[in-house]
Fold this protein.
Amino acid sequence: MADRELRAVYAQKLVALAARDPRVCVLEADLAKATGTGPFAAAYPERFFNVGVAEANLVGVASGLSATGRKPFAATFGCFASRRAFDQFFLSANYAGLEVVLVGTDPGVTAAYNGGTHMPLEDLALMRTVPGLAIVEPADPTSLEAAITLALERKGCTYLRLQRKSAPELYQANEHFEFGKAKLLRRGKDVTLVALGALMVAEARKAAETLAAEGIEATLVDAFTLAPLDGKLLLELAGETRRMVSCENHRVTGGLGSALAELLAEAGVPARLARIGVAADLFGEVGTQDWLAEHFGLTAPHIAAAARDLVK
Amino acid sequence: MTAKVPETPASAAEISALAARAKSVRRACLQSIATLGIGHVGGSMSVVEILVALYFRHLRLDPADSKAADRDWFVLSKGHAGPALYATLAEKGYLPKELLSTLNKGGTSLPSHADRKLTPGVDMSTGSLGQGFSAATGIALGLRLDGPRSDGSTKRCWVIIGDGESDEGQVWEAASFAAHYGLDNLIAFTDANKFQIDGSTEAVMNLRDLCAKWEAFGWKALRVDGHDFAALDRAILAAKTEKGRPVMIILDTIKAKGVPALEGRAESHNAPFTAVEMAAVDAASGEALHG
């Protein structure tokens, strides 16, 4: 199946949902061209609002719209969605018990040429501290469509981490998704690779193939949602393989790796954990996505090496 | 269903009735703070008249149904004046008056800062300054999407911000937004009581000419005595006729109005206030101490 551009999927899905759900609104903060929501603006101009370069107000307006019964999808770069508008999202949206879908685009190294200033490597860490918030990072176009529908139906707020570029299809069109349910993509007895998002699931998949060629059998999980985390499945797999590698396009602090460490430690499962992600003491940098992924150690060879070390 | 509101200026008798309500709300609010011994006296007392004008004359409401679909919405963006809002809601019949004595006590439904999940009649959770105002613009937008009531009248969002709150950048982001989208169903008030936590607004962060600022942002701006019911009534009726742009009414107010020991002092923001101070207030206003 051909790759699909994820931002195009985002816009198309919202247009489709808006046709049957009058609550759907789309908000942008002068990044509609980047998010690619032009088709929504054209189809539903009365439900499309550009607030200008004002991310705090983006979330405030979305919260107000939600209070009156709308389902706002508000997007901006992930760095601004998290670092800049965190208090607004925390308080006006989440604490207030409203239903805002905040979309943070260009996660981690996918910010590429926008560089360190624009590279969200801590958005997951921040969002994990918000009570009741669902955090989803889809790994392919089909799971993105499902995530949008689930976020629309959810009672509560959602943080959707959206990689804009193309991604290959991992799932069949009729695949069933739930927040809090991870996807088991491959079964092996030696090590469990837990990946989040399109970039890292793809890299972890390649790593699993490399390992298989060496006789190391890896289980591969697409976490789908970081919150709620599928603790039941992950603990079961940790118990089986006794080795786990977290793979995230994020700093290792506070995100998927941290969540797994907490999960394993509290459950008392004797499993070793290696965390693939940007090192705790590093800020983002500028470069191509490929260069950055290699530079920060996010690629398949790094994942395979970490798995090999655990298996040794 | 909500009750219709008057579209003509208040009579002298109606103004007197509002003043009597304000007296009752002011005392109930202070009494609730005195029960605890400390609270946001200053900024609560400066908004009593505007709250009474709104809740007892200008908001389309149904106290028996705090979520009535055809209601006007109200956001207290300066969320720390929660005690004044609670006293007003109790006076209006949203809450039992006895509840006021639970203010800020563990497990209460009346927290220091207004909370839509806890208190019937509270439309938005506020307290992190600037945020409620921004949400109010979103609410006004949502109400406009709803369209008018069956009787053709406009569903409005009303919001109060503080002058100290106007230091927040988010206020001005939302100001641009409301004007850009022509939200004429948004009527806002600035409680210009001239003080914030660290001193006078002039000394801490000089806001200069607020009316000129709001006009420059594309709003209709008015300035009135925020403790004068007749002036408030005229300004609100004028605001309701404005088309194509939101309205900001700057309220010249006195921080801690009605509490002689604290009036016009920055220290009144979050001040100790006990039965002793309550007695002094009652003595000054010629009331017997009771309750």
User: Anything to note?
Assistant: Chain B has a mean pLDDT of 96. Strands of chain B lie at 38-39, 73-76, 157-162, 186-192, 195-196, 199-200, 220-225, 247-252, 271-272. The radius of gyration of chain B is 18 Å. The CA atoms of residues 157 and 198 of chain B lie 31 Å apart.
